[in-house]
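Input record (one chain):
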Amino acid sequence: MIQLFHVSKSYDGAVTALKDITLKVAKAEFLFITGPSGAGKSTLLNIMFGSEAPTEGHIIIDGMNYYKIPPREIPLLRRKIGFVFQDFKLLPNKTVFENVALSLKVMGTNPREIKNRVLRTLSYVKLQHRANFKPLALSGGEQ
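The corresponding structure, as predicted from the sequence alone:
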């Protein structure tokens, strides 16, 4: 679904945040990006999400060349990408289950499929016992 080919990003021509990154993220694949502060993790995710353009390289998102996607279609494309922000972006008035289910609901996924996928995902990250909790009742790590 997302492919990067020789992607690099520099700021003001002086600070290199990414250099020659090539990767492929398949549909429904989970990708965890870790590394020290300043390693370019947020820059890479912003490029993959389409909120920042690379300095060099090519990006294919859902089979389309990123540079040929009309700006008005970027928000529709983003709905197909699950993205967990560093500062969580959880809705405080919704349960853990509802927060996880939100993107599937927006995409028009069948309610039975939403329930199955959310429960499977919560089980995978060992949070099924917290499904009915609100985000503020969770630890930082759980969020």
